[in-house]
Design a protein that fits this description.
This protein has 348 residues and is α+β, with helices and mostly antiparallel strands. Helices cover 23% and strands 36% of the residues.
């Protein structure tokens, strides 16, 4: 009786110790399992990582764990979230512009929709011609034209000789008109510039009698400045000077003679040595002239003065001279005039 209780008492400490060890193992296993679950990413984390890669502007890339980025993407995400393809694989909407609008489409249009749009949208008409830009030009070959002059200054009649020299190389031109009279001296006008699809484009005009005055065409600034210190003027498209305007008119008529019937008008800015004005020429029709150099068929144009003191200009263009002037008559408001008639032609 006394031996049995002593054995029971001896084993109790061992049983208590065994239960303590078992409980410690259970706690350790639970902690390890919890740690493993904490180290694994959340079930939806891989989906969030893919969304960041496709649309970085929505979620900063730093929010994605590096370990999750290296993992293989899991199956499709939950139904309540939009699929990844809807966020990144659809191409950006196209931007289309109509004939007269600049409205961006919010969705890419399908081929049938584009066909319907093209059928419903009328074709835009071509832009109308812009003045001289639609005209044809034919520049005369280089030549020297000689003229006899009859004139009158303050009721004093005089005679003189004149020479118009026209030179160009297909891209640049130079024109020079010299009028010389006994006791009256000489007067020289020059014009230089470029030959363009719109005809002559002067860069400098000069007029010299006792002294020289000049006009400079600053095309890059859109203005004309004068050496006489008179106010500058705005440079208009197709502008000419008081010498080049005659050759420009010749080039216009030669380029398309049938375009200028009787009564038609040609208008352009004419720049002198001190100022500029608009010269409007009206086609008077064909005339046959008996000139010092012989008979010439011509087309007459007249600039009728718009103001009291404007210069009246009469111009006869001869097809046999490349439509260069066979006769020029300038008349002042006080009755003074100069009448310049073709006498001969020479090589320059």
């Amino acid at each position: 009786m006394t031996g049995t209780p002593s054995k029971t008492v001896a084993w109790r400490p061992l049983a208590i110790l065994g239960m303590a060890v078992l409980l410690a193992h259970l706690v350790l296993l639970q902690g390890t399992s919890a740690a493993l679950r904490a180290s694994e990413p959340h079930a939806t984390r891989p989906f969030i990582t893919r969304t960041i890669e496709l649309a970085p502007a929505v979620t900063p890339p730093s929010a994605a764990p590096k370990a999750a980025a290296a993992r293989k993407p899991p199956p499709a995400p939950p139904a309540e979230r939009p699929p990844v393809e809807a966020l990144g694989s659809t191409p950006a909407p196209a931007i289309e512009y109509g004939p007269d609008t600049a409205t961006a489409a919010t969705e890419p249009a399908s081929a049938p929709a584009l066909e319907q749009l093209a059928a419903a949208t009328p074709a835009a008409p071509p832009p109308p011609p812009r003045g001289d830009r639609a005209r044809a030009y034919a520049v005369a070959a280089p030549v020297r034209l000689l003229y006899d002059i009859a004139g009158q200054i303050k009721s004093f009649s005089y005679s003189a000789r004149a020479e118009l020299e026209w030179r160009h190389d297909g891209s640049r031109y130079d024109a020079r008109l010299e009028i010389g009279a006994f006791l009256l001296g000489s007067r020289i006008q020059t014009s230089s510039g470029s030959l363009t699809p719109e005809g002559l484009a002067p860069t400098r005009f000069s007029d010299k009698a006792r002294s020289e005055l000049a006009a400079h065409f600053e095309r890059d600034k859109g203005k004309v400045i004068f050496s006489a210190n008179t106010p500058e003027v705005a440079l208009q498209p197709g502008a000419q000077d008081h010498l080049s305007i005659f050759i420009q008119l010749a080039s216009l008529i030669a380029g398309e003679p049938g375009r200028y019937p009787r009564g038609s008008a040609i208008e352009m800015q004419a720049v002198g040595a001190r100022d500029a004005d608009i010269w409007r020429f009206v086609v008077d029709g064909e005339e046959r002239l008996n000139l010092p150099g012989g008979e010439q068929a011509t087309l007459k144009l007249t600039r009728v003065p718009g103001q009291t003191y404007d210069l009246r200009v009469e111009l006869w263009l001869a097809p046999a001279l490349g439509y260069l002037p066979a006769r020029i008559r300038l008349t002042q408001s006080n009755g003074d005039f100069i009448d310049q008639q073709w006498r001969a032609s020479e090589r320059p």
